[in-house]
Amino acid sequence: MISAAEALKDFKKITPKKIPEVEMFAQGHRACQGCAEVLALRLAAKAVGDKLIAVSATGCMEIISSPYPQTAWLSPWIHVAFENAAAVASGIEAGRKALIRKGRIQDDGAKVVAFAGDGATLDIGMQALSGAMERGHDFTYICLDNEAYMNTGIQRSSATPYGAMTTTSPPGKLSKGQVTWKKNMPAIAAAHNIPYVATASPAYHIDLMNKVKKAVTVPGPAYVHIFSPCPTGWRCPPEMAIETARKIVKARMFPLYEVIDGRYVLSRDIKKPIPVADYLATQRRFRHLKEEDIAYIQSRVDADWDRLMALIKATNPEEEA
Amino acid sequence: MADEGMQSWKTLALGCAMTEPGTSRSFNTGDWRGRQRPVTDREKCIKCGACYILCPDMCYSPDTEAEEEGYWIWNGFYCKGCGICIAECPKDAIEWQDEKEEDKYGQACRT
Amino acid sequence: MAKRVGLEVSLACSEAVKLANVDVIAAYPITPQTHIVEHLSELVADGHLDAEFVPVESEHSAMSACVGSSAAGARTFTSSSAQGLALMHEILFIAPALRLPIVMAVANRSLSGPISIWNDHSDIMAERDIGWIQTFAENGQEVMDLTLHAFKVAEDHRVTLPMIVNLDGFILTHVIEPIEMPSQEEVDAYLPPFEPQQKLDIANPISMGLVGVPEVYTEARKAMLDALEKSYPVIKEHWDGFAQQFGRQYNPIETHHVDDADTVLVTMGSLGETAMTAVDEMRAAGRKVGQVRIRLWRPFPSGDFLDAISGAKTLVVMDRALSPGADSGPVATEIKSLIYATGGGPYVADFVAGLSGRDVTREDFKQMVDKAEAAAAAGDPMTFEMWGVKE
Prior knowledge:
heterotrimer; A: alpha/beta; 8-stranded mixed sheet; two-stranded antiparallel sheet; globular; C: Rossmann fold; 2 domains
């Protein structure tokens, strides 16, 4: 199998002037007002284009796209259950691979892409995802991370950020809300030594689409983690969804980067970060936090950024010289 | 229950599949909107397409009927009124405008 | 030409899957299923079978990958047992709902706890209502034949449902038996390549697994149920076709000396062969005892069963699983409800026997018959007993 870098050698970038016209996801879906998760999904599907075979985990994007008889999918699509999108995708990939090899179907260049929320990815579906990545299936897994179980009513997941209020991490006399630090799923994906891992935000939509396009271009497993603001669950005005997705990047709280064949590449350097407090202030799920809580979050964000910079340095030794 | 929207089991596709893509397009999400809609001032519009690419509900498409190419036309049948297009327009060319209830659906709402 | 070989029954299952030229096997190892998947992975590794062997990280993912593979249009096989089957539980319901003709061999084993690797039917009885077609094999030849038959039935466009072949763990899986192995040409003549009715295809995009809103959920379930019910004549048709091709006839309900029998033993799975010997011995001793073996468990062949027991005064039902809190085991419960609808019928004694691989001998069967006949004569309440439990 060729490396990701080699597969991406002649990569044709999507540019603001060359946004693909094709849509693989249709209007009339039932996502909430200002849902940036469905926007991320739409952009990702658009970037893949008409070669897409989509798999959805149970969750917001699955229910809003498929109340019978209405499907918002313009590509072939399957939903099976909550925790198994990666396993279903690996089955589709294996089936097609066998059929193509045996001459039963033509190689039409279809791209198998699994879409799942943070709960379906970081919690209940992590085993299936780990297995599929480890086995090396040629598929892309896109985590649409809105940082809690929104479909069931805003319960905390392991992607919920420290301090956030959810219906199962309520701030109270003895609690600040979510008490754990967000699980670093892109790092876990990268630890599988898969060819391509990336983080993306719909506020940087060209970057997002290019990363998804790269993910489906590289042979083998690819993982794209997309920050997906949820105005309903985060208690922010719907028109602020994109701004929220922009601010978290500017605050260095959700760095945009790629891991190509194990090499970390920063997509967007944030030379003058805004304080995390500015980001946290956009959402009422953080409004109970005190100054010292915000200072703690700032210190962890700074440390995480430094660690990422160290990883970039460590995995790009030639650039040091 | 009333049988509105119901279908005989004998007519369901195999495995209750939907064999036609994009059937959600028949579903009106425009009535989720309050009595305001985003309206673009084409004097200010620079045709950047931010409204088109950032709309979660895919309400903006190329206006093929305009005399000048490159503008985007809004479709109120799907617009839920989130206001992202207004917030993200780099030229502040899109503004809320009041609309009557009866103007909320179909072609009448296209601006 | 077919050839007769000595083969472990697990390997006979694998060889049948190979003869079916399956495209994808997604499986996770669990005792006593392991030899089936080990041999399949060898066949793939050696190039004898052109298939993708997906060594998944759990049974949940095994069934999920099978769903994906089958939805992509590939002939798909898996195998599991006990805890593994239970871990698949959630997805087992979805495969028939999506109408995916996956074939699975279940090496029947006790469900924990306490944990036990040995044979009974508690694993599959917990999956009674999943909507798959289910058959039970009694010996190695049947495992081979029923596996080939399973692909034929499951993929038939009049059916398009997943299918399980049950084979008793260890008692069958780990035993070497003489097996008539059909040639590839013979199998190809019986089993055409899989032509999916619909699949995930970018040339013809369909959506599978939509939300079953209240307006459609009931209808979707009805459609699935209807397909399962209508699979019955197809199952029989393909057994008849199998008999023509290979000379071995199978039936949904197999009978032995039932015509004039007062007492009929009802078995499912490999205990049937021991029971048959016991019946023959009782016959030789002048007792009017017969036997019914349930080969097709789902859809249950109600008419065939009632015909087979129409002359019996007493039924001695062998359950190999408990249905805790119910008044009998799952097989007897099934039979009693059938008989109730006839407005009369025989006395039913139910014995839960052979849990966790405990031997059930010819002598045991004879004692059960004695006990049941005495209870029936005395007009005792319907017998339910965990056979051989040490007090």
